[in-house]
Amino acid sequence: MKIDLNCDLGEGVGNDEAIMPHITSANIACGFHAGDVNVMRETVRLAKRFEVNVGAHPSWNDRENFGRKEMNASPDEVEKLVLEQIQILAVIAKSEGVILTHVKPHGALYNQAAKDIELASAIARAVKSAPKGDAISVDLILVGLAGSRSIEAGRGMGIRVAAEGFPDRGYNADGSLMSRLLPGALIEAPEEVARHAVELIKKGGMDTLCLHGDHPNAAENAKLLRDVLIQNGVEIMGLKK
Questions:
Q1: Is the pLDDT of residue 240 over 80?
Q2: Fewer CB within 10 A of the end CB, N or C, for the chain?
Q3: What is the mean pLDDT of residues 13-26?
Q4: At what angle do helices 75-95 and 117-129 cross, to 10 degrees?
């Protein structure tokens, strides 16, 4: 069994370098919920040094709420919003000799798209239309919640998708992520995060597991999770490998 380990980085938390050796894909904030040009460049360089895949982590234009407030926009506006952020990171990636491999929406944009096919389709169109070439992979991958509208939309447009699970988050009965306002939404202990990861993999249907870079134990989670998965016979491998 193979699995990709990804983490949301470039968000100004300060632990990116401690996390990077343990993951295979980095989702880099594109400045709309966190980060800026300098942070993006620094994170891309870190990923290159540790041979970690680089992906765009677009969000609603919402730095005030770290991209975690639900918003509404037309499908065309969402497509432009996501495409703009992909291209912002692609310019930096190109200057550093790195190719973007994937796109994973952030926060409220991600969770809304998981349930809203029109929103999911707008994001998928942005991924499909992103200009492929020196800085963007010809088979750019859309990462979305396993079993969600995001995965459905991507497959419907013929783009490559990666179904994702969250070891450090609690789930609702319908497979959606629990609101962060509810008890149990954030799994804090590294041992519990690792145990949950094994459970998710055993359920099947997942290509990648995400760890949040702003988690209080993010670096410890990443190291222990990788070790536990390897002990359980799981091969840690990037989506593009």
A1: no
A2: N
A3: 95
A4: 40
pTM metric for this prediction: 0.95
Q: Please, is 198 exposed, middle or buried when counting C-beta atoms within 10 Å of its C-beta (0-12, 13-18, 19+)? A: middle
Domains defined for the chain, CATH in brackets: 2-236 (3.20.20.370)
Strand partners, 4: 208
With 0-12 / 13-18 / 19 or more C-beta atoms within 10 angstroms meaning exposed / middle / buried, residue 42 is: middle
Largest Cα–Cα separation, the chain: 46
Please, what is the angle between helix 107-115 and helix 149-156, to 10°? Answer: 70
- What whole-number distance in Å separates Cα of residue 174 and Cα of residue 92? 38
| Rounded distance between C-alpha atoms, residue 101 and residue 188, angstroms | 29
